[in-house]
Design brief:
Oligomer: single chain
Radius of gyration: 22 Å
Distance between the termini: 37 Å
Number of domains: 2
Number of helices: 8
Structural class: alpha+beta
Helix content: 55-70%
Number of strands: 6
Shape: elongated
Strand content: 15-25%
Order of helices and strands: EHEEHEHHEHEHHH
Largest sheet: 6 strands, mixed
Length: 266
């Protein structure tokens, strides 16, 4: 599973050295770098994006998470938006949808105090030592988080709950008198609208997950072209992990979609 990595540095120059180190480890096959950015927090607390880039064919599909973290760290009024942000596909995303969690955000926000800089990166690694060793040599404080499946789990729970609500209302309607039928029918329509919204969200999330997975796999394939045999084995392992992660997420999203479909067909 891919990780969100943030390395906080005392200076902007050190942050760019850190980015170079991350890219070198990608080139050597020790890690896979999907998307990256260098940000600086000024004395007023605003975040400026100094450099944003995606590796290989990944494009905005994977860069969304990096862009999401920039937006969450800066807040609506806390980001100095530069032209480079376009490659990240946007700024403000729901915290649950980003899959990084409030605790991680709090830790990074505290470390990234005014005047400091940071490297933000989406990476995949088989072990942490190569990256930690190099970044610590440059004086970085390093934070990592695995992406969670909060939004997928939430969609399944809400789909099941609304399906149950709809069945209850439909049963109540069978036994309702003329005075209460109109109110129950109104409630049924409202629940159906909510179910339709969930179905659309599940489909959108599934499409997004598929696009991200395809982008990651293509990036990994490109990385193997100039990798040593030893590095290729590590990259092959990452490919297996990416495919397994997609299977887990897509299974939950398909479950949510099926629940909503059954509810609307009832």
């Amino acid at each position: 599973m891919d990780k969100m990595l943030v390395a906080v540095f005392e200076t902007e120059a050190s942050a760019f050295e850190g980015l170079s180190a991350v890219r070198h480890l990608h080139k050597e096959g020790d890690i896979t770098l999907y998307a990256s950015a260098v940000v600086v927090k000024d004395k007023a607390g605003k975040i400026a994006v100094k450099q944003a880039a995606d590796e290989g064919p990944v494009g905005t599909a994977v860069g969304l998470l990096t862009g999401s973290l920039i937006g969450l760290l800066g807040g609506p009024a806390g980001v100095a938006v530069g032209a480079s942000l376009g490659s990240l596909g946007g700024l403000i995303f729901d915290l649950d949808a980003s899959g990084i969690g409030a605790q991680f955000l709090d830790e990074v926000s505290t470390a990234l105090s005014p005047g400091k800089s940071a490297v933000l990166a989406e990476i995949q690694e088989n072990w942490t030592t190569p990256l930690d060793t190099r970044l610590h040599q440059l004086g970085a404080t390093v934070f990592r988080r695995l992406r969670s499946e909060v939004i997928e789990d939430q969609l399944v729970r809400e789909s099941a709950a609304f399906e149950a609500d709809l069945k209850t209302l439909q049963e109540d309607l069978k036994h309702a008198d003329a005075e209460t039928r109109a109110a129950i029918q109104k409630d049924i329509q409202q629940v159906k609208m909510q179910i339709q919204t969930l179905q659309d969200q599940a489909k959108k999330r599934l499409d997004q997950t598929k696009a991200e997975t395809d982008a990651r796999l293509q990036s990994l394939k490109d990385q193997t072209k100039q990798a040593s045999d030893r590095a290729k084995r590590r990259i092959d392992k990452r490919m297996t992990e990416v495919k397994a992660d997609f299977e887990t997420r897509s299974k939950k999203l398909n479950q949510a979609w099926s629940l909503t479909k059954e509810a609307l067909a009832a």
